[in-house]
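User: structure tokens for this one?
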Amino acid sequence: MRILLVEPNARKVEETTRHMEKAGFTVDHVDTGHDALGMLKSYNYDLAVMNVDLPDVDGFEVIRISRAARVPTPVMVLAEEKSATAKVRAFSTGADDYVTRPYESMELTARMQAVIRRSKGYSEPTLRAGHLELCLGSREVSVHGQGVHLTGKEYMILELLLLRKGMVLTKDAFLNHLYGGMDEPEMKIIDVFICKLRKKLQGAGAGQLIATVWGQGYVLRDEAGAMPTPRDRTMAQATTA
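Assistant:
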């Protein structure tokens, strides 16, 4: 899952990024409100984690503007202020959660995952499609209860497909999710990753879940044999976090 961290303090950036990456998140960082708005409007992040004390634009205003612009990315405020007034202001402008420093890293990770799950319509920490299960907390994948070993990139692809189940994702979307615009390989690498992922799932008994939508990309469906609908095809995404 790709996270946008909005934090002007270099020490806090290092600390927070370390906790997030240890939990398996991919983190992009900006230190101003204007940059945060630009990134939120340009990329489909799974979550934005924001310090509202920014050097240029008040973080609450960043949230308000992004919501007015119909940016769907959920926002978690990570702040020093513990007052009820600050929390009410955050939620009233469109924040999805409010966490105060100092925080326990395990609690932060759990709350991040919970916000992301809720934003995708999941109430449990396990994502499912047919007999396939992916646990966001442990990063374990199983089919019919049997574990399936995936590489880091294969896991990230499957996680993205499950979080956006039923939506057609372009190869550009996968590249952005895996590499975030940094040192991206050729687009055909996505076909290679998908092929290897399909073989592993097929060996476990779930090889028909990932469908190819010719000329657009790939989609994960709940039931084998259920092809994407015309509405699915119109939801192809060129970018994602």
